[in-house]
Protein backbone atom coordinates (compact mmCIF):
# COMPACT_ATOMS: atom_id res chain seq x y z
CA UNK A 1 0.00 0.00 0.00
CA UNK A 2 1.29 3.47 -0.90
CA UNK A 3 1.03 6.15 1.75
CA UNK A 4 0.82 9.71 0.44
CA UNK A 5 2.85 11.71 2.97
CA UNK A 6 3.29 14.94 1.08
CA UNK A 7 1.00 17.55 -0.44
CA UNK A 8 0.38 16.92 -4.13
CA UNK A 9 1.82 19.42 -6.61
CA UNK A 10 -0.65 22.27 -7.14
CA UNK A 11 -0.40 24.50 -10.18
CA UNK A 12 1.14 27.83 -9.16
CA UNK A 13 -0.50 31.13 -10.08
CA UNK A 14 1.03 32.97 -13.05
CA UNK A 15 3.41 35.80 -12.19
CA UNK A 16 1.16 38.44 -13.81
CA UNK A 17 -1.92 37.17 -11.96
CA UNK A 18 -0.01 37.05 -8.65
CA UNK A 19 1.12 40.63 -9.07
CA UNK A 20 -2.45 41.71 -9.83
CA UNK A 21 -3.77 39.90 -6.75
CA UNK A 22 -1.09 41.58 -4.63
CA UNK A 23 -1.92 45.05 -5.95
CA UNK A 24 -5.63 44.40 -5.36
CA UNK A 25 -5.13 42.95 -1.87
CA UNK A 26 -5.03 46.32 -0.15
CA UNK A 27 -6.66 49.74 -0.16
CA UNK A 28 -4.66 52.96 0.26
CA UNK A 29 -4.29 53.87 3.94
CA UNK A 30 -6.44 56.78 5.08
CA UNK A 31 -4.91 60.27 5.21
CA UNK A 32 -3.53 61.42 8.58
CA UNK A 33 -2.09 64.73 9.80
CA UNK A 34 1.59 64.25 10.67
CA UNK A 35 4.01 66.74 12.29
CA UNK A 36 6.51 68.13 9.79
CA UNK A 37 9.41 66.30 11.46
CA UNK A 38 7.73 62.94 10.75
CA UNK A 39 6.42 63.64 7.25
CA UNK A 40 9.63 63.18 5.26
CA UNK A 41 9.15 60.65 2.46
CA UNK A 42 5.35 60.49 2.79
CA UNK A 43 3.01 61.48 -0.03
CA UNK A 44 0.71 64.47 0.36
CA UNK A 45 -2.94 63.41 0.66
CA UNK A 46 -4.15 66.82 -0.51
CA UNK A 47 -2.69 69.92 -2.15
CA UNK A 48 -0.28 72.03 -0.09
CA UNK A 49 -1.53 75.62 0.07
CA UNK A 50 0.09 78.81 1.28
CA UNK A 51 -1.57 79.65 4.62
CA UNK A 52 0.26 82.97 4.51
CA UNK A 53 1.72 85.05 1.68
CA UNK A 54 5.50 85.23 1.18
CA UNK A 55 6.65 87.77 2.03
CA UNK A 56 3.99 88.42 4.61
CA UNK A 57 4.15 92.22 4.17
CA UNK A 58 5.89 94.78 1.95
CA UNK A 59 9.46 94.41 3.23
CA UNK A 60 12.89 95.76 2.47
CA UNK A 61 15.11 93.59 0.27
CA UNK A 62 18.28 95.40 1.38
CA UNK A 63 19.90 96.88 4.46
CA UNK A 64 19.76 100.68 3.97
CA UNK A 65 17.14 103.43 4.06
CA UNK A 66 13.44 103.39 3.24
CA UNK A 67 12.74 106.76 1.66
CA UNK A 68 9.68 108.79 0.52
CA UNK A 69 9.79 111.44 -2.21
CA UNK A 70 13.04 113.02 -3.41
CA UNK A 71 16.25 113.30 -1.37
CA UNK A 72 17.95 114.45 0.63
CA UNK A 73 15.79 112.87 3.34
CA UNK A 74 15.45 113.64 7.03
CA UNK A 75 16.17 110.56 9.19
CA UNK A 76 13.00 109.72 11.11
CA UNK A 77 13.95 106.43 12.86
CA UNK A 78 15.11 102.85 12.43
CA UNK A 79 13.17 99.62 11.68
CA UNK A 80 14.71 96.19 12.29
CA UNK A 81 13.32 92.79 11.21
CA UNK A 82 11.37 91.47 14.20
CA UNK A 83 11.41 94.89 15.86
CA UNK A 84 8.66 97.49 16.19
CA UNK A 85 7.23 98.89 12.97
CA UNK A 86 7.65 102.59 12.20
CA UNK A 87 4.81 104.35 14.00
CA UNK A 88 3.07 105.87 10.96
CA UNK A 89 3.50 106.62 7.28
CA UNK A 90 6.65 108.23 5.87
CA UNK A 91 6.09 111.77 4.61
CA UNK A 92 7.81 113.01 1.45
CA UNK A 93 11.40 113.98 2.33
CA UNK A 94 11.63 111.46 5.22
CA UNK A 95 13.70 108.26 5.56
CA UNK A 96 14.08 105.45 8.13
CA UNK A 97 17.09 103.23 8.47
CA UNK A 98 15.86 99.70 7.65
CA UNK A 99 17.07 96.08 7.82
CA UNK A 100 16.54 93.41 5.16
CA UNK A 101 13.18 91.70 5.79
CA UNK A 102 11.78 94.51 7.97
CA UNK A 103 8.38 95.91 6.90
CA UNK A 104 8.73 99.21 5.03
CA UNK A 105 6.60 102.05 6.46
CA UNK A 106 3.53 103.06 4.48
CA UNK A 107 4.46 105.75 1.95
CA UNK A 108 7.92 104.27 1.23
CA UNK A 109 8.84 104.92 -2.41
CA UNK A 110 12.11 102.95 -2.52
CA UNK A 111 14.93 101.52 -0.44
CA UNK A 112 18.40 102.97 -0.90
CA UNK A 113 21.07 100.41 0.12
CA UNK A 114 23.86 101.61 2.45
CA UNK A 115 26.33 101.24 -0.44
CA UNK A 116 24.41 103.89 -2.44
CA UNK A 117 23.65 106.29 0.41
CA UNK A 118 25.52 109.20 1.95
CA UNK A 119 24.35 109.49 5.50
CA UNK A 120 24.93 112.20 8.08
CA UNK A 121 23.76 112.24 11.70
CA UNK A 122 20.29 113.56 10.84
CA UNK A 123 19.88 113.16 7.09
CA UNK A 124 20.72 110.89 4.19
CA UNK A 125 21.09 111.44 0.44
CA UNK A 126 21.40 109.15 -2.58
CA UNK A 127 19.75 107.96 -5.78
CA UNK A 128 16.32 106.38 -5.22
CA UNK A 129 14.70 104.39 -8.04
CA UNK A 130 10.92 104.20 -7.52
CA UNK A 131 9.88 100.81 -6.09
CA UNK A 132 13.44 99.52 -5.98
CA UNK A 133 14.51 96.99 -3.29
CA UNK A 134 11.01 96.54 -1.91
CA UNK A 135 9.60 92.96 -1.87
CA UNK A 136 5.83 93.27 -2.11
CA UNK A 137 3.46 91.20 0.09
CA UNK A 138 2.78 87.84 -1.62
CA UNK A 139 5.19 88.59 -4.45
CA UNK A 140 7.07 85.28 -4.03
CA UNK A 141 4.06 83.12 -3.07
CA UNK A 142 0.52 84.55 -2.97
CA UNK A 143 -1.68 83.58 -0.03
CA UNK A 144 -3.79 80.49 -0.88
CA UNK A 145 -1.57 79.40 -3.78
CA UNK A 146 -1.30 75.62 -4.32
CA UNK A 147 2.45 75.06 -4.21
CA UNK A 148 2.48 71.23 -4.34
CA UNK A 149 -0.22 68.91 -5.64
CA UNK A 150 -1.70 65.87 -3.85
CA UNK A 151 0.53 62.85 -4.36
CA UNK A 152 3.80 64.81 -4.24
CA UNK A 153 6.51 63.21 -2.11
CA UNK A 154 7.44 65.24 0.96
CA UNK A 155 11.12 65.97 0.32
CA UNK A 156 13.46 67.79 2.72
CA UNK A 157 12.90 70.98 0.70
CA UNK A 158 9.11 70.54 0.81
CA UNK A 159 9.36 70.49 4.61
CA UNK A 160 11.08 73.88 4.53
CA UNK A 161 8.49 75.26 2.12
CA UNK A 162 5.59 73.97 4.25
CA UNK A 163 7.09 75.59 7.34
CA UNK A 164 7.53 78.91 5.51
CA UNK A 165 3.86 78.76 4.58
CA UNK A 166 2.74 78.34 8.19
CA UNK A 167 2.17 74.57 8.40
CA UNK A 168 2.94 72.56 11.56
CA UNK A 169 1.35 69.33 10.30
CA UNK A 170 0.89 67.89 6.83
CA UNK A 171 -2.00 65.73 5.66
CA UNK A 172 -0.23 62.71 4.21
CA UNK A 173 -0.76 59.10 3.31
CA UNK A 174 1.03 57.28 6.11
CA UNK A 175 3.83 54.98 5.09
CA UNK A 176 2.61 51.41 5.66
CA UNK A 177 4.38 49.74 8.57
CA UNK A 178 6.23 46.50 7.83
CA UNK A 179 7.34 43.91 10.37
CA UNK A 180 10.11 41.63 9.10
CA UNK A 181 10.41 38.13 10.59
CA UNK A 182 13.61 36.28 9.68
CA UNK A 183 13.31 32.54 10.30
CA UNK A 184 15.93 29.80 10.24
CA UNK A 185 18.05 28.31 13.02
CA UNK A 186 21.01 28.28 10.63
CA UNK A 187 20.74 32.04 9.91
CA UNK A 188 23.22 34.28 11.73
CA UNK A 189 23.13 38.06 11.81
CA UNK A 190 26.71 39.17 12.09
CA UNK A 191 30.21 38.10 11.32
CA UNK A 192 31.37 35.28 9.06
CA UNK A 193 28.98 32.35 9.01
CA UNK A 194 30.62 29.13 10.20
CA UNK A 195 29.99 25.60 8.92
CA UNK A 196 26.26 24.87 8.61
CA UNK A 197 25.39 28.55 9.06
CA UNK A 198 24.40 31.28 6.56
CA UNK A 199 24.46 35.00 7.09
CA UNK A 200 21.06 36.75 6.79
CA UNK A 201 21.13 38.46 3.38
CA UNK A 202 17.41 39.36 3.19
CA UNK A 203 16.93 41.48 6.31
CA UNK A 204 19.57 43.99 5.12
CA UNK A 205 17.95 44.66 1.72
CA UNK A 206 14.33 44.84 2.82
CA UNK A 207 14.32 48.32 4.45
CA UNK A 208 15.55 50.02 1.25
CA UNK A 209 13.16 48.04 -0.94
CA UNK A 210 10.23 48.75 1.37
CA UNK A 211 11.12 52.45 1.50
CA UNK A 212 11.17 52.73 -2.30
CA UNK A 213 7.67 51.21 -2.40
CA UNK A 214 6.47 53.86 0.06
CA UNK A 215 6.58 51.80 3.29
CA UNK A 216 8.80 51.69 6.36
CA UNK A 217 10.25 48.72 8.21
CA UNK A 218 9.04 49.14 11.77
CA UNK A 219 11.05 46.22 13.16
CA UNK A 220 13.13 43.21 12.13
CA UNK A 221 12.86 40.19 14.42
CA UNK A 222 14.84 36.95 14.22
CA UNK A 223 12.78 33.88 15.05
CA UNK A 224 13.88 30.33 15.83
CA UNK A 225 12.48 27.60 13.58
CA UNK A 226 9.21 26.09 14.74
CA UNK A 227 5.56 27.03 14.48
CA UNK A 228 5.09 28.51 17.96
CA UNK A 229 7.41 31.53 17.63
CA UNK A 230 5.94 32.34 14.20
CA UNK A 231 2.39 31.87 15.47
CA UNK A 232 3.06 34.15 18.42
CA UNK A 233 4.74 36.85 16.30
CA UNK A 234 1.92 36.90 13.73
CA UNK A 235 -0.82 36.97 16.39
CA UNK A 236 0.89 39.83 18.25
CA UNK A 237 0.69 42.24 15.31
CA UNK A 238 -1.59 45.19 15.88
CA UNK A 239 -4.01 45.94 13.11
CA UNK A 240 -4.10 49.52 11.89
CA UNK A 241 -7.65 50.47 10.95
CA UNK A 242 -7.55 53.99 9.58
CA UNK A 243 -3.79 53.74 9.09
CA UNK A 244 -2.48 54.34 12.62
CA UNK A 245 1.10 55.43 12.23
CA UNK A 246 2.76 52.92 14.54
CA UNK A 247 0.84 49.83 13.39
CA UNK A 248 1.83 46.87 11.23
CA UNK A 249 0.18 46.72 7.83
CA UNK A 250 2.33 43.97 6.33
CA UNK A 251 4.36 41.17 7.93
CA UNK A 252 7.17 39.75 5.81
CA UNK A 253 8.19 36.22 6.72
CA UNK A 254 11.59 35.21 5.26
CA UNK A 255 12.24 31.48 4.87
CA UNK A 256 9.77 28.80 5.99
CA UNK A 257 7.87 29.16 2.71
CA UNK A 258 8.67 25.79 1.12
CA UNK A 259 7.82 22.20 2.06
CA UNK A 260 10.62 21.17 4.43
CA UNK A 261 10.22 20.06 8.05
CA UNK A 262 11.11 23.58 9.25
CA UNK A 263 8.80 25.37 6.78
CA UNK A 264 5.87 26.25 9.01
CA UNK A 265 4.39 29.30 7.32
CA UNK A 266 1.44 27.58 5.67
CA UNK A 267 0.55 25.58 8.79
CA UNK A 268 0.66 28.67 10.96
CA UNK A 269 -1.43 30.68 8.50
CA UNK A 270 -4.04 27.89 8.51
CA UNK A 271 -4.03 27.73 12.32
CA UNK A 272 -4.58 31.50 12.48
CA UNK A 273 -7.48 31.31 10.01
CA UNK A 274 -5.68 33.50 7.47
CA UNK A 275 -7.15 34.05 4.03
CA UNK A 276 -4.46 32.76 1.65
CA UNK A 277 -4.55 34.91 -1.49
CA UNK A 278 -1.49 33.51 -3.30
CA UNK A 279 0.13 30.13 -2.59
CA UNK A 280 3.06 29.67 -4.95
CA UNK A 281 3.83 31.60 -8.12
CA UNK A 282 5.04 30.31 -11.49
CA UNK A 283 8.24 32.33 -11.40
CA UNK A 284 11.96 31.51 -11.34
CA UNK A 285 13.46 32.15 -8.93
CA UNK A 286 10.99 32.57 -6.12
CA UNK A 287 8.17 30.10 -6.70
CA UNK A 288 7.57 29.11 -3.04
CA UNK A 289 6.07 32.48 -2.04
CA UNK A 290 2.74 33.34 -0.48
CA UNK A 291 0.43 36.22 0.32
CA UNK A 292 -2.28 36.03 2.97
CA UNK A 293 -4.44 38.28 5.10
CA UNK A 294 -4.69 37.66 8.83
CA UNK A 295 -8.21 37.81 10.29
CA UNK A 296 -7.31 41.00 12.21
CA UNK A 297 -6.13 42.83 9.09
CA UNK A 298 -2.39 42.73 8.35
CA UNK A 299 -1.16 41.13 5.14
CA UNK A 300 1.52 38.43 5.35
CA UNK A 301 4.06 38.13 2.50
CA UNK A 302 6.02 34.88 2.66
CA UNK A 303 9.40 35.09 0.92
CA UNK A 304 11.65 32.12 0.10
CA UNK A 305 14.86 31.80 2.10
CA UNK A 306 17.15 31.85 -0.94
CA UNK A 307 18.12 35.54 -1.13
CA UNK A 308 17.73 36.17 -4.88
CA UNK A 309 14.47 34.21 -4.81
CA UNK A 310 13.39 36.42 -1.89
CA UNK A 311 14.16 39.54 -3.92
CA UNK A 312 12.12 38.29 -6.90
CA UNK A 313 9.26 37.33 -4.59
CA UNK A 314 9.37 40.70 -2.82
CA UNK A 315 9.07 42.46 -6.19
CA UNK A 316 6.16 40.18 -7.15
CA UNK A 317 3.93 40.34 -4.05
CA UNK A 318 5.30 42.68 -1.38
CA UNK A 319 6.13 45.74 -3.48
CA UNK A 320 2.77 45.93 -5.38
CA UNK A 321 0.83 45.53 -2.10
CA UNK A 322 2.92 48.23 -0.40
CA UNK A 323 2.61 50.62 -3.32
CA UNK A 324 -1.14 50.31 -3.18
CA UNK A 325 -1.27 50.85 0.61
CA UNK A 326 1.03 53.87 0.34
CA UNK A 327 -0.63 55.35 -2.75
CA UNK A 328 2.72 55.21 -4.59
CA UNK A 329 2.14 55.50 -8.35
CA UNK A 330 3.02 52.45 -10.43
CA UNK A 331 5.17 53.04 -13.49
CA UNK A 332 5.87 50.34 -16.05
CA UNK A 333 9.04 50.28 -18.09
CA UNK A 334 9.71 48.10 -21.09
CA UNK A 335 12.80 47.55 -23.22
CA UNK A 336 14.57 45.14 -25.50
CA UNK A 337 16.56 42.27 -24.02
CA UNK A 338 19.78 40.89 -25.53
CA UNK A 339 22.03 38.06 -24.48
CA UNK A 340 20.10 35.17 -26.04
CA UNK A 341 17.82 34.69 -23.01
CA UNK A 342 15.46 31.77 -23.49
CA UNK A 343 12.01 31.67 -21.88
CA UNK A 344 11.00 28.86 -19.52
CA UNK A 345 8.11 26.71 -20.84
CA UNK A 346 5.85 27.31 -17.80
CA UNK A 347 7.38 29.90 -15.50
CA UNK A 348 8.17 33.59 -15.81
CA UNK A 349 11.89 34.23 -15.47
CA UNK A 350 13.30 37.20 -13.58
CA UNK A 351 16.70 37.95 -15.11
CA UNK A 352 19.13 40.50 -13.61
CA UNK A 353 20.16 42.97 -16.34
CA UNK A 354 21.89 46.29 -16.87
CA UNK A 355 20.09 48.77 -19.07
CA UNK A 356 22.21 50.19 -21.90
CA UNK A 357 21.50 52.31 -25.00
CA UNK A 358 21.40 49.05 -26.98
CA UNK A 359 18.86 47.38 -24.68
CA UNK A 360 19.02 45.39 -21.46
CA UNK A 361 21.93 42.96 -21.09
CA UNK A 362 21.96 40.04 -18.64
CA UNK A 363 24.73 40.30 -16.04
CA UNK A 364 24.82 36.59 -15.11
CA UNK A 365 25.44 35.29 -11.58
CA UNK A 366 21.72 34.74 -11.17
CA UNK A 367 21.57 31.67 -8.91
CA UNK A 368 18.64 31.76 -6.43
CA UNK A 369 20.95 31.53 -3.42
CA UNK A 370 23.12 34.52 -4.37
CA UNK A 371 22.54 38.26 -4.73
CA UNK A 372 25.67 38.74 -6.87
CA UNK A 373 23.85 39.18 -10.20
CA UNK A 374 21.12 41.38 -8.69
CA UNK A 375 23.81 43.59 -7.12
CA UNK A 376 25.50 44.05 -10.51
CA UNK A 377 22.15 44.73 -12.19
CA UNK A 378 20.03 47.87 -12.28
CA UNK A 379 16.81 46.05 -13.25
CA UNK A 380 15.18 42.64 -13.46
CA UNK A 381 13.90 41.68 -16.91
CA UNK A 382 10.55 39.86 -16.78
CA UNK A 383 10.61 37.04 -19.33
CA UNK A 384 7.20 35.36 -19.54
CA UNK A 385 6.75 31.73 -20.60
CA UNK A 386 6.59 31.58 -24.39
CA UNK A 387 8.26 35.00 -24.72
CA UNK A 388 8.40 36.08 -28.37
CA UNK A 389 11.86 37.64 -28.12
CA UNK A 390 10.47 41.18 -28.41
CA UNK A 391 10.19 43.75 -25.62
CA UNK A 392 10.14 42.77 -21.95
CA UNK A 393 9.03 44.52 -18.79
CA UNK A 394 11.94 45.89 -16.75
CA UNK A 395 11.59 46.27 -12.99
CA UNK A 396 14.04 48.88 -11.78
CA UNK A 397 16.09 47.80 -8.77
CA UNK A 398 16.44 50.39 -6.06
N1 LIG B 1 10.50 19.79 -1.79
C1 LIG B 1 10.72 21.06 -2.15
N2 LIG B 1 11.80 21.69 -1.69
C2 LIG B 1 12.07 22.96 -2.07
C3 LIG B 1 11.21 23.59 -2.98
C4 LIG B 1 10.06 22.90 -3.43
O1 LIG B 1 9.24 23.42 -4.20
N3 LIG B 1 9.85 21.65 -2.98
N4 LIG B 1 11.52 24.86 -3.40
C5 LIG B 1 12.92 25.25 -3.34
C6 LIG B 1 13.05 26.64 -3.58
S1 LIG B 1 12.86 27.16 -5.18
C7 LIG B 1 13.36 27.55 -2.61
S2 LIG B 1 13.63 29.19 -2.98
C8 LIG B 1 13.50 27.16 -1.22
C9 LIG B 1 12.66 28.06 -0.31
O2 LIG B 1 12.83 27.61 0.96
P1 LIG B 1 12.22 28.27 2.24
O3 LIG B 1 11.53 29.53 1.95
O4 LIG B 1 11.45 27.25 2.96
O5 LIG B 1 13.52 28.67 3.06
P2 LIG B 1 14.52 27.76 3.83
O6 LIG B 1 14.29 26.34 3.51
O7 LIG B 1 14.51 28.19 5.22
O8 LIG B 1 15.88 28.24 3.17
C10 LIG B 1 16.24 28.00 1.84
C11 LIG B 1 17.71 28.36 1.71
O9 LIG B 1 17.90 29.76 1.99
C12 LIG B 1 18.77 29.96 3.10
N5 LIG B 1 18.26 31.08 3.89
C13 LIG B 1 17.15 31.09 4.64
N6 LIG B 1 16.96 32.32 5.18
C14 LIG B 1 17.98 33.07 4.75
C15 LIG B 1 18.34 34.43 4.95
N7 LIG B 1 17.60 35.26 5.72
N8 LIG B 1 19.46 34.90 4.34
C16 LIG B 1 20.23 34.06 3.58
N9 LIG B 1 19.91 32.79 3.32
C17 LIG B 1 18.82 32.28 3.91
C18 LIG B 1 18.71 28.66 3.86
O10 LIG B 1 19.83 28.45 4.64
C19 LIG B 1 18.59 27.65 2.71
O11 LIG B 1 19.84 27.41 2.13
O12 LIG B 1 13.07 25.83 -1.02
C20 LIG B 1 13.55 24.91 -1.99
N10 LIG B 1 13.16 23.60 -1.58
O1 LIG C 1 12.69 30.29 -5.34
MO1 LIG C 1 13.83 29.13 -5.52
O2 LIG C 1 15.17 28.42 -6.31
O3 LIG C 1 13.31 29.48 -7.15
O4 LIG C 1 15.19 29.97 -5.18
Question: Can you describe this structure?
Answer:
This protein is an alpha/beta fold. It has four domains: 13-30 and 175-326, Molybdenum Cofactor Biosythetic Enzyme, Chain A (3-Layer(aba) Sandwich); 34-53 and 141-172, Molybdopterin biosynthesis moea protein, domain 2 (Alpha-Beta Complex), CATH 3.90.105; 59-135, Molybdopterin biosynthesis moea protein, domain 3 (Molybdopterin biosynthesis moeA protein, domain 3), CATH 2.170.190; 333-396, no CATH class. It is 17% helix and 29% strand. It has seven helices and 28 strands. The protein has helices at 15-23, 156-164, 206-212, 227-235, 265-271, 307-326, 372-376; strands at 13-14, 32-35, 43-44, 48-49, 59-60, 64-67, 73-79, 94-98, 110-113, 117-119, 123-126, 134-135, 146-148, 169-173, 177-183, 187-188, 198-199, 216-223, 250-254, 275-279, 281-284, 290-293, 299-303, 333-335, 348-356, 359-362, 379-383, 392-396. The strands form seven sheets. Strands 1, 21, 24, 25, 26, 27 and 28 form a seven-stranded mixed beta sheet that branches. The protein has a six-stranded mixed beta sheet with strand order 9-6-8-7-11-10, with no helix packed on it. The longest helix has 20 residues, at 307-326. The two termini are 53 Å apart. The mean pLDDT is 92. Pathway: Cofactor biosynthesis; molybdopterin biosynthesis. Its EC number is 2.10.1.1. GO terms for molecular function: molybdopterin molybdotransferase activity.
Amino acid sequence: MTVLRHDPVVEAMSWEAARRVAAGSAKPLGAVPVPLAEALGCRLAGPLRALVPVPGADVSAMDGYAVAGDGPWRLAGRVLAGGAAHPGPLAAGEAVEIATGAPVPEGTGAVVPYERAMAGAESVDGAAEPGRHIRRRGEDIPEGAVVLEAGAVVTPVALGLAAALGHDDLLVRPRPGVLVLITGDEVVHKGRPGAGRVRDAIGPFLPGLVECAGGRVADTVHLPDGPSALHAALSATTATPGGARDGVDVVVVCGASSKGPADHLRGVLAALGADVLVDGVAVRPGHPQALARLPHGPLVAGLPGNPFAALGAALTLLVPALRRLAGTPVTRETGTLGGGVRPHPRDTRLVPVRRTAGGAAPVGHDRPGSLWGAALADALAVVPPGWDGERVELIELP
